[in-house]
């Protein structure tokens, strides 16, 4: 009987135990408070849903931010080259009072003040007023453009914050969500918003492509464009109008505070990869698109991370990668080129020093064999003021290039290719010296130093022009040095060394 009672009690407790187990097996997301802003590691299904665009809202957001990044990258390229990058910052801050006023007026007229076209229209009007204010301050006063930017930025943004306070006190203002325009909120983007951003962005890109030649000329040589009859003022207004449109359509995605970064960072990163404006705008467009796409995807995977900040952080990471690894203007490639140039300069200095030593000792005649043309290493060290360690490394690298060979422990001599290379180096050096003396009025006592700064980067075309200008006509004969070669004669192992004594 007691066994039956125990079994009955256990069976009656099982449903309660099952409920407790079910409660304990709830996902962490269901247990998390709505105010919890902690970041959890997403599961594989979350990554898959974002990467394969399984959610409708994710597709809308990624499409809108990608098109925004493309248009911002292309338009920002011209603004950056025009040195109007900070104009977008002042413009974005100047849109805030227009957004608040548009909401107030639309609500007062019985309209829906939260619709995106209404808010963006107010932002556009306010932004244009901000640009007009900057131009008026710059033209009517003696203040510079940076001071005008600071004044307009602070005044308009302060007015916008004050108007937002009024909006929050309205009956419908608490649900307006206008503060999302400050920091950006892509989660609220709907299909109509994405199509509006995409159509406006593609229109701006199309206009910049049609005016590519004119905008390029405006960015690089405004005076020449004006002299050729181009409407410089109109082109400048068109460029600023494009910046206005791109800035306004990016308010919802990135926010007015961070919108300037999307206009500046992709073109600045693209600058490290190319020297041509066509490829600059193309690379900036690609980087802007990737920034919008990856940033919004990361925000979808980590919901507690704001999309605007993620887009900017992705763009910044691309900028850092471009700054370090970019070709041809990245830090690493510039360091590598500098290193290669230093090695080239040291090698040419070594060859020229050996040649001038042989020339001063009259050892370049045909009666002297290659074995007779040895130079003491200690003399080269004194001629170039090199340390023994550096001179040893230079000699070692020149030997690996088959330009010199070691005669004995303390002497070296040129090989046949080394003698030919040394003659070429000396010829170009003295050709440039003669040009500086003849046409630049440089004193012969100082021309060696001036020529040494440029001779290592002379192109063959420049050498040919110098030879033609100085009536050499591609002569292979070595010009005499226009200044005295201060090389001390020393005893060397040559057939007539007895006739050359130190101090003779």
CATH superfamily of the largest domain: ABC transporter involved in vitamin B12 uptake, BtuC
The count of domains is 2
What's the CATH first level of the largest domain? Mainly Alpha
CATH architecture of the largest domain: Orthogonal Bundle
CATH topology of the largest domain: ABC transporter involved in vitamin B12 uptake, BtuC
Strand order, main sheet: write it out.
1-3-2
Please give the radius of gyration in angstroms: 36 Å
- The assembly state of the depicted protein chains is single chain
Largest sheet: 3 strands, antiparallel
Count of individual helical segments: 21
Given the helix and strand composition, which structural class is it? mainly alpha
Rough outline:
elongated
The total beta strand count reads 3
Strand content: under 5%
* Average pLDDT metric: 81
| Poorly predicted runs of 5 or more residues | 1-35, 491-504
Helix coverage percent: 55-70%
């Amino acid at each position: 009987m007691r066994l039956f009672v125990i079994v009955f009690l256990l069976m009656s407790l099982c449903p309660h135990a099952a409920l407790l187990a079910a409660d304990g097996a709830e996902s962490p997301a269901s247990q998390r408070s709505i105010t919890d802003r902690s970041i959890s590691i997403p599961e594989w299904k979350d990554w898959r849903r974002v990467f394969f665009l399984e959610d409708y809202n994710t597709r809308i957001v990624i499409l809108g931010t990608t098109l925004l990044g493309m248009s911002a990258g292309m338009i920002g390229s011209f603004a950056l080259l025009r040195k109007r990058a900070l104009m977008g910052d002042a413009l974005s801050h100047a849109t805030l009072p227009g957004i608040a006023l548009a909401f107030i007026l639309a609500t007062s007229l019985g309209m829906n003040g939260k619709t995106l076209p209404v808010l963006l229209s107010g932002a556009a009007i306010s932004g244009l007023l901000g640009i007009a204010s900057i131009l008026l301050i710059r033209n009517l006063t003696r203040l510079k453009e940076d001071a005008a930017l600071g004044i307009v930025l602070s005044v308009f943004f302060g007015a916008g914050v004050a108007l937002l306070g009024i909006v929050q006190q309205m009956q419908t203002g608490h649900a307006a969500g206008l503060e999302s325009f400050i920091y950006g909120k892509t989660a609220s983007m709907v299909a109509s918003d994405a199509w509006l951003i995409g159509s406006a962005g593609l229109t701006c890109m199309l206009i910049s492509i049609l005016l590519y030649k004119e905008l390029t000329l405006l960015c690089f040589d405004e005076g020449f464009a004006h002299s050729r009859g181009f409407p410089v003022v109109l082109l400048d207004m068109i460029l600023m109008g494009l910046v206005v449109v791109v800035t306004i359509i990016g308010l919802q995605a990135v926010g007015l505070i961070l919108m300037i970064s999307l206009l500046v960072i992709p073109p600045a990163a693209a600058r490290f990869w190319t020297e041509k404006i066509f490829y600059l705008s193309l690379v900036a467009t690609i980087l802007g698109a990737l920034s919008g796409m990856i940033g919004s995807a990361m925000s979808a995977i980590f919901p507690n991370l704001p999309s605007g900040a993620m887009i900017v952080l992705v763009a910044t990471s691309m900028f850092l990668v471009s700054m370090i690894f970019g070709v041809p203007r990245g830090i690493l490639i510039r360091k590598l080129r500098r290193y290669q140039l230093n090695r080239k300069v040291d090698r040419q200095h070594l060859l020229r020093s050996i040649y001038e030593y042989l020339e001063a000792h009259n050892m370049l005649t045909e009666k002297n064999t290659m074995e007779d043309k040895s130079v003491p290493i200690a003399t080269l060290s004194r001629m170039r003021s090199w340390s023994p360690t550096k001179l040893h490394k230079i000699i070692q690298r020149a030997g690996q290039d088959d330009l010199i060979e070691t005669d004995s422990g303390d002497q070296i001599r040129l090989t046949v290719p080394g003698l030919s290379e040394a003659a070429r180096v000396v010829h170009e050096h003295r050709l440039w010296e003669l040009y500086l003396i003849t046409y630049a009025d440089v004193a012969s006592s100082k021309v060696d130093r001036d020529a040494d700064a440029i001779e290592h980067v002379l192109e063959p075309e420049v050498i040919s022009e110098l030879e033609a200008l100085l009536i050499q006509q591609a002569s292979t004969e070595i010009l005499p040095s226009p200044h005295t070669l201060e090389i001390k004669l020393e005893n060397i192992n040559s057939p007539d060394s007895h006739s050359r004594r130190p101090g003779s």
